[in-house]
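The aim of this short unit is practical: by the end, you should be able to scan a pair of folded records and say something sensible about each. We start with the first protein, listed as its amino acid sequence and then its structure tokens.
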Amino acid sequence: MLTLDNYLDNHYIHRSNWLRAAVLGANDGIISISSLAIGVAAASTTKEPVVLATVAGLVAGALSMAAGEYVSVSSQTDIEKGDIERERKELKEMPEQELNLLAQIYEQRGLKKETARQVALELTEADALGTHVRDELGINEISQAHPIQAAMASGAAFTVGGLLPLLVILFAPVKGMEYWLYGFTIIFLMVLGVAAAKTGGSNPLKAVLRIAIWGTIAMGLSAFVGYLFGVKI
């Protein structure tokens, strides 16, 4: 039976915040660490410099990803809080204008003028600020930013994603390592694309193509830089 408690069970929008951060982190971890390793491997004759660069990039990247996500989402949260306070002030100083604006919003959504006015009145009486925050500003529980959640999802996903190419480096031979990295990285990215698409309820093929193409471009440019400088480490 469909109720207010389970109506989102068959939808995926409530996963968008953490899923976006997790996919971004894992994708960045796989591509950036693989690209870094490919660039170093292309100019190296031993495995040690590649491992060292990869581990350093993994640690720095995970911390940077988490910190960046936290700062970015916190900025969004600050904007939301500022808008909510402005809305609270406007409701106090010009309630009639805010009521008219709310009625216009409902009218634009398809309600008759009289019905829109009545709905606006009743919702304002029930929860004026919550109604305006949701319907005027477009902020709700699903879309609201969560900095800690986003930072943890992004940092953890980057670490998991970055560990995959590191495992390839540890077991692959030095000669031709960049090709091993490229092959396995494309596989990792495809798996990530399918997993992200399944979790988000979208088309797996589009996700796989998108992630594979951009991953190939990033790794190709990194390898080119390594060959271009040609410094043997």
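Turning to the second protein, read its sequence before its tokens, just as you did above.
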Amino acid sequence: MIKKIVITSLFLCCTIVLSAQLTYGTTGLLHAPSAEMQRDKTVMLGGNFMNKEITPPTWYYHTYNYYLNVTFFPWLEVAYTCTLFKAEALGLKPYGYSGFTNQDRYFSVRLRALKEGQFWKYMPAVVLGTSDPFTSSGGGEIGSTNGNGYYSRFYIAATKHFTIGTEEVGIHLSYLYNKRKEYKLNGVAAGISYNPTFAPDLRVIAEYDSKDFALGATYLLFNHLHMQVELQRMKYFTGGLAYKIYLK
């Protein structure tokens, strides 16, 4: 009963105040990638509250992140994301530090290989992407197995939108890979997005990110303020805000 109340409240809130994967600072679904892209020359500044259940095990506590995302061309998106560390988790408490005093930093890159409907009507969009691909620790390593590179992943994603009556539904399929021992992302991820005609800036998302199921929604308010809420495994809350600037 409590779960039903939370989910109902989530969507009621969305229709009033709350388009998408900005949990990690990049376009996509919630955690799973998609082949959608932002408008050319879009800049996004944002941040999230991140439940410890969606982060790598290094974060055994709830944390926050913030990011800068730039779509340089219609086919190229780059993001820089910082996730906060607590001093206690880094062993800095004996030195007089406490709370959030450090951060993990990484880049993400998304390259669109095919545009939706580019060569034929039913062709999906295809994007190649990576997050946190390289760490300079240990002499430098691509796709690290341990240590830094906590959010490392490589993926290929496809997206196709369909109109059913007057409603638009997006079907998203991707394959993810990394070599992390404590935070494996290997296998198929999939999701469905729905944009209702009664609230065109509202987007409802259900996904499987190769590890967990999640349900969430996003809303673009005043064409600039992007709001996102989600329930991982249908019970762990994560949410964030981003501001979009259109340079073109």
